[in-house]
Amino acid sequence: MNHKPEALDALLGDCKTPADVGSLYSQLLQRMINRSLEAEMDVHLGYARHAKADADSARPNRRNGVGTKTVKGEFGALEIDTPRDRDGSFEPQLVKKRQLRLAGMEDKILALYAKGVTTRDIEHLMQDLYGVEISHTVISQITDGVLDEVRAWQNRPLDAIYPIVWLDGIVVKVHQGKQVVNKSAHVVLGVNLKGEKEVLGLWLAESEGAKFWLAVLTEIKQRGVQDIYIACMDGLKGLPGTVAAVFPQTLTQLCIVHLVRASLRYVTAKDAKTVVAALKRIYQSVSADEAAVELDALEAEWGDKYRAVVRLWRGNWDNIIPFFQFPPEIRKVIYTTNAIESLNMSLRKLTRNRRIFPNDEAAVKALYLSIEQASRNWKQIHHWKPALQTFQILFGEDRVPVSALQ
Length: 406
Known about the structure:
The chain is of the alpha/beta class. The protein is built from 17 helices and eight strands. The strands form two sheets. Strands 3, 4, 5, 6, 7 and 8 form a six-stranded mixed beta sheet that branches. A two-stranded antiparallel ribbon has the order 1-2. The radius of gyration is 29 Å and the shape is elongated. The protein folds into three domains: 1-102, no CATH class; 104-144; 159-405. The two termini are 46 Å apart.
């Protein structure tokens, strides 16, 4: 809408600072909302506010004054006049009954909570940024409203096939009674047949163990997952066997980045760069045979000094080499950590900002919101169609449907 310059000048005549403009906007927004609510009542009753009295008397339902309430938004507190009708059937849509915050405010609160900002800090930020007083108790109620959404998300039906899944866990600190304990948040990230990433679920437990992963995998099978081509994981003892128990046809692939990180725990800072270069020659080899030669070279050069590193790679060799059967460009899809690491980066940022959660529910809420925010920026996996074609060659049409390639 284009307004005449003189009309705009008249509105802005007393505005000297950005705060003055914000105040003006609040007043205009308040008037706009009140007028819109009156228009909603007109539609509800079927006649305008100033219809003739004799005509009004024949109508069974009429206006019955207004109810005033304070609604908080990005530009401060607004006094809203909600029209009422005689029989109480009017349900306003722009600002609903019992709604005390304008749309957008709750989204900002949830976004801050997802980044690990505490409820008390959010309370102060709302006051500083928007001049709105929202108590930390109300903020907790807003975030508690996410719990029903979390439960629905956690129990939703899943696809029958996820070609690749990553199994990972991060540690969160939670108050339990008078103690602070470490708990493991188990996360399953999958790639569906369209090449789209999707977190299948989130589970909090005392620790990360193969036994608990068995319960997780059993649950996702009960929710509809029938087949997984490749499961990528860290070096947790017994996890490959746990995957095989639930999904016997699934290849298990050790996450290379997890393995490299685990190796560097035994290596001094002085040698780290050289050892990483040697490890890279292993997992970037053209074939499993070439990788075995590079592992022998690693042992010859560093075996005496870093026997634990060599033992780590040899002990996990069967779960390191599955991706060598794939073309190089497809290996990146399988063992790259971009998918799971980008998610973990968001979750770790959350746990750094919010070092200790008051209870399990608070941790689950924050982790879910962080996952939900991270997933907004996800794109389809690169080179996905060639990957599916390779999967079909290796696993057959009975496992990889032809329709997925179209």
